[in-house]
Amino acid sequence: MRGWWREISGLVLPGACEGCGVPRTGLCAGCAGALAGGGGRVRPVPEPAGLPVVHAAVPYEGAVRELLIAHKERGALGLAGALGRALARAVEAAVGGARERPLLLVPVPSSRRSVRARGHDPTRRVALAAAGRLRRAGASARVVPVLRQRRAVADQAGLGARGRWANVAGALEVVPGGGRLLAAGRVVLVDDLMTTGATLAEAARALGAVHRPFTSGAAGRSPRDSTQHEFEQRVAAVIASSPASFEINRNSSETWIVAGGER
Fold first, then answer.
1. What is the pTM of this model?
2. Per-residue confidence (pLDDT) for residue 110, from 0 to 100
C-alpha cells in the first residue's frame, strides 16, 4: 500500500525528482538523461560459473542509483515507465536485434517477504513496462514469470562474492508447466541490477534444468535432432550494473576468473 499512497499523493502534492531532488517533478530531464546513457555488455570479476551473457543499459551510479532505490525501496511506482525504457534497450542489445520469435522476458523473482514489505514486485513491474515498450517498437514481447524461490535466502548485504553465490545456490526453480511456456520464444532473463552476478547465474541454472533454447538449423527438422540445430546462448538484461563491470569489458586482454558471486 505504501507505493499506491505515494502515487496518489503525487497527484495532489508538489513532488521532487527521485534522482536529484529538483522540486515539482518526479523525474527531471537530467536524471531521465542519465537513464538514457550508454550501456553495453557487463561481466563481474570474479564471474560466477553459468552466468549468461549480460547487457546493462547504464552504470549503477549517481542519479541512476537513486532512481532504482526510489522505485524498489521507496515505492516510487511512477518511475517504472522510465526504468522500463532503459531495460528495453538492454533487452534489444542482449538479443542483437533478433525479431523472428517472440521475446519472453523472465524476471528474477523477489521473495514473498520482500514483496510484502515493499508493497510491490519492482523487477516484475519494470519487466512489464519494458515488454510494453518493445511491443510499441514492433517486437513481439511479453513477461513470463516462471521463476520462483524454492527456499529462503539471507539478506545479501555484507556478503562477498562467494558468500552471495553460496546464499542463492539452488534457491530458484521453474514453476510446474513453465518449461512449456519457455519453448514459445526467445528467453531473456531480466533484473533491475547486477553487481556480482550470482542471482542471474542461479536463475540461468534453474531455467536450464527444464529448458534448452535452440534456433532451427534446417527447415522441417525436429528440435530433438541436435545435429540440425544451433543452441542459443543464454542471455540476460539489466537496467544497471557497477561501473567497473563496463570498464573491465573494454580491456580485451583481461583474464576472466570463473568463481562464485551475486547480484
1. 0.81
2. 83
